[in-house]
Amino acid sequence: MRFAKTGRARFIAHLDTLSVLVRAVRRTGYQLAFTEGMRPKPLLSLALPLGVGVEGEDEICDFSLRQRVPLSEFSRRLNQELPEGIRLKSFSPSYESKSASRVTGASYRVRLANPGEDWQEAAAAYSRENDLVVLRHRPKGDKEVNVKKYVKSVNIADDGSARFEMLVTSEGTARPEEVISLLEKFAGRKMEAVRVVRTGITLGEKRPPAPAGKRRRLRR
Questions:
Q1: Which of 40, 169, 174, 195 has the greatest number of CB atoms lying within 10 Å of its CB?
Q2: Cα pseudo-dihedral 141, 143, 147, 150, rounded to 10
Q3: CATH second-level architecture of 102-218?
Q4: Could you tell me which of 135, 134, 148, 131 has the C-alpha nearest to residue 218?
Q5: 64 close to 1: Cβ distance less than 8 angstroms
């Protein structure tokens, strides 16, 4: 299933989004298939987590039902049960491995409240660098992330929004806010992002190998 998650729905966290989709499917009258074992779980998953506050224009959800269903009828019922801000776009059968294991990248668009010429200059400076490392704060301990290994360049569109492609590997990826923080560093000022949108998710046969280079964890 491909769907959009926009407006106020962008504040629904990842696990809550899964719950919303599970409940919506159940209310259609059709039954989700479940895993086997002591604690069976519904066979429904998202290809790539979406950060809270980030909109998604083309998100991907894998799920299995217990029975075959007419897609037109199922689509109509599901759209009626989805909350405001989550909109079904399309269905397609999947005969391959789960989408989550085939994600190789994602594309983003960021609109600023106060764009200027320094925004263009900051994007150009970002693209010229070979390594751009940020410190990511985590409960398990901080770690350094070379954002440039995941986002090679940033382009500024005619409307002043920043656009970039982000690599997703088996060892991780960057975050949109990390790209923005680096652009702010090059511009020398705070840039308020009023809208961050993931415009698409790229699927491949398998994920590319992890970026070369060691990551050093920093203890608090």
A1: 174
A2: -80
A3: 2-Layer Sandwich (3.30)
A4: 135
A5: no
CB atoms inside a 10 Å sphere around CB 132: 21
pTM greater than 0.70:
yes
Tens-place pLDDT, residues 120-139: 899 999 999 999 999 998 88
What CATH number has the domain spanning 2-100?
A: 3.30.70
Place of tokens 């491995």: 97
Structural tokens at position 140: 């398990």
Give SS3 for 25.
helix
Cα 28 to Cα 3, 34, 44, 158: the distances in Å are 17, 17, 15, 43
Q: Tell me which of 40 and 192 has the higher pLDDT.
A: 40
